[in-house]
Write a structure and sequence with these properties.
This protein is an all-alpha fold. The chain folds into two domains: about 70 residues; about 70 residues. It has seven helices and no strands. The radius of gyration is 19 Å and the shape is flat.
Amino acid sequence: MSALDALRRGADHVPGGRAVVAIRLGKTDEVLRKEIAGGASHKLGAIDALAIAAMACEAGTPHCYDYAAYVAHECGGRFEPLHDPGAGAASPVAKVSKLVLETSHITSAVIDAMQDGVISDNELAQIEREIAEAEDVLRKLRQAARAVNAAGKPRMAAAVS
């Protein structure tokens, strides 16, 4: 996944879609589409990228943290939100099942790529997309586990008293 892919997913999931994001940025939908597509004639600035990511987070969309996670990863760090709009929506067990599926996708992509002993640019891009999806599932697993942990603390404190 690229930075533009992350922004595109965020913008497309904001209620009203890219058209609403474009209006809030003071642009036309077509200009924003070209900027997010990475066209040579239209460049998306860092401030606009941040504004798109913030709009997605404000709306609590499923991919609202993709851009922040991408930027953190590219800078050698890790993005960890203080809260997630849907963190408690699924149990950690469901997230582990999803993680197993995602790691099988990574495994398949690597095995397919290594059949000729060389990883091409396209194959590397596919592997990196699969890894990014698995990292997203890991982040959601961490948040779901923390939500279950936090939910159990008041009951444990009441039982001790």
